[in-house]
Amino acid sequence: MFSSRLNWGIPVNPLSRLLAEKRASGATILDLTESNPTSAGFTYPADRILAALADPRSLCYEPAPAGLLAARSAVSGYYGGRVDAARILVTASTSEAYGLLFKLLADPGDEILVPHPSYPLFDFLAALESVRVVEYPLVYHGGWSIDFDALARKITPQARAIVVVNPNNPTGSYLKKSELAELTDLCRRHNLAILSDEVFSDYALGDNPGRVASLVNVDDVLTFSMSGLSKLVGLPQLKLGWIVTSGPMDVCKQALERLELIADTYLSVGTPVQWAAGPLLALRESMQAQILERVRGNLVYLESQIGRDSPWRVIEPEGGWYAVIQAPRIYSEEEWVLTLLGEHDVLVQPGFFFDFESEAFLVASLLTPPQIFQEGIRRILARAG
Fold this sequence. Notes:
- The protein is an alpha/beta fold.
- It is built from 14 helices and 14 strands.
- The chain has two domains: 4-43 and 284-383, Aspartate Aminotransferase, domain 1, CATH 3.90.1150.10; 46-281, Aspartate Aminotransferase, domain 2 (3-Layer(aba) Sandwich), CATH 3.40.640.10.
């Protein structure tokens, strides 16, 4: 009766089962997986946010497939005028942006290449569009980079696009300028598009002149850059994302026309958040300052607790909200997370959730309130200090 696209099953993994049991017992959990900024203790300017959403123009419905010009102009302003509003299409979220782009580029059975390790959402988004995910590896040699030999071997006649997450989640690694040149050359030779997920792009933890902050002005390969309010302003409940299209002028024009046709079928983006886009994006600096202070402070604390001779190791992030911690191999990743939760009431994510190729890695959110983060890290490191 139901579509085969939904044949995922709903397995309850041991970590989820144990977490439910602990919460049912009334245990106080130190949750080091916090990814929701609205529940992480930040101060939001409620009056300005609510005022932005009270614009009386929201009472009039003006269906615009690419989004209201006011919203697209606000996004253009975020890019400092480097992106013409005509190249921007607004969406309800980055996840929806992926769905629109998979519809645009791929037929059922076609392939999208995605990085691993990375955020474990691609399989589900692709399955809903009847598209196949093919993983290509990121490798770590003192810093993360694309394994271009492996990537090239993964490209088949069914490949349609390469996804880059910039910076990656959870490794926090940015695409480098040398990598971008190699990536665009590869895509040009194989007639592939680039999908660049840039939701964490503003959260750099240090300077690096070799880093690529955004792909919005790639001009030789069809490229789609995605972002939105969820991470940039810490407002995941106000559903507004966008796609910036770049590349050769003729193919960009064709892509934008087709994207508008797809978006016109759904018209999913709410009018109030579109009129509010400008005022909400104006909050970006103040909200990001709070988030970056939290993320940097937690990272400094984590690194201060792991000495040179420690069996633990922090895989240094360049940006984003997460820390990857290499744990001693006295346990498997599953044993680590179950032991930490079961015996110490500390919740972290195992590396295999993000398709790390080897063990043992734990992933902790640097968005976690400091008191909880510090106590959680103390308990983790005490397990094998």
